[in-house]
Design brief:
By secondary structure, the chain is α+β, with helices and mostly antiparallel strands. 18% of the residues lie in helices and 43% in strands. It is globular.
Length: 262
């Protein structure tokens, strides 16, 4: 099934929104809860499956939904369809700061592998499935888990990443990456996990015990602020049990709490 030909516009800087313009009867699929606003003639329905194989039957839809549950995502995808007679828009955003990356799958060879929570939305006809990393070590220590999402098709898809997104084209080179900083990569690249230096560097270097190594020919997308890293910083700064907390400075933080009445 060929993907619907959708138009789009990405707005914003650090909390970006992608607005998808749909012709009559065009459809875009998205993760549950990603929609922000939509025009009046757009109708949505939660469905098992991405709609790329309309004749797969109920068993095929259950299998597709089960695969999505393995990645920790909802078993349903939401389908947004323009049922009016004019162009209509629907807008999507991710729940934390970062960038939205547009992916022309036809230019990427028809597929990209990405971390399990990177997919945001795509034109109907795009297949959202799972892919297993080839090496067991990548699954246990790869940061993104043993199971990756596979996005296949010939149209537009969109993924979200934290912080700044950097796109790198590899032509036989090797790139070593913090395991949480990989957003996605084309299937032709070899992805593995290697030890981060000697034992002293592993335990005291602050870069984690393992690094992801990507080598070969293809494209890789990197993020500067993985959500897990952002969440760790928030937890570290959150009030501790008993009411104590870390302020922005030991003196000013305490003074600020006195002024606030805490």
């Amino acid at each position: 099934m060929r993907s619907h030909e959708i138009d789009y516009k990405i707005q914003g800087n650090d909390m970006q929104v992608v607005s998808i313009e749909l012709d009559p009867q065009e459809t875009v699929i998205a993760e549950a809860g990603a929609m922000n606003w939509m025009d009046g003639d757009i109708y949505f329905e939660a469905k098992m499956g991405d709609g790329s194989q309309p004749d797969q039957g109920i068993f095929g839809k259950l299998m597709s939904a089960g695969k999505r549950m393995l990645t920790g995502e909802s078993m349903f995808l939401t389908h947004f369809t323009n049922q009016g007679h004019q162009k209509q828009q629907v807008s999507f955003a991710a729940p934390y700061p970062g960038k939205i990356v547009p992916l022309n799958l036809q230019q990427l060879g028809g597929e990209i592998l990405c971390q399990k929570d990177a997919f945001l939305c795509a034109a109907k006809g795009t297949q959202i499935s799972i892919a297993f990393t080839q090496k067991l070590g990548s699954g246990f220590f790869g940061g993104e888990g043993f199971i990756l999402q596979s996005i296949k098709g010939d149209g537009m898809a969109f993924m979200h990443a934290g912080g700044t997104v950097v796109e790198k084209e590899l032509n036989g080179e090797t790139l070593k990456i913090d395991t949480g900083c990989i957003v996605g990569f084309t299937p032709g690249l070899d992805y593995s996990i290697e030890r981060a230096g000697n034992l002293k560097s592993m335990f005291f270097g602050g870069e984690g015990l393992f690094l992801a190594t990507v080598r070969g020919v293809g494209k890789v997308y990197l993020q500067s602020m993985p959500f897990s890293r952002l969440a760790d910083r928030i937890i570290e700064s959150a009030p501790k049990a008993g009411g104590s907390s870390q302020g922005e400075g030991s003196v000013l933080g305490g003074l600020g709490r006195l002024i606030d009445g805490d």
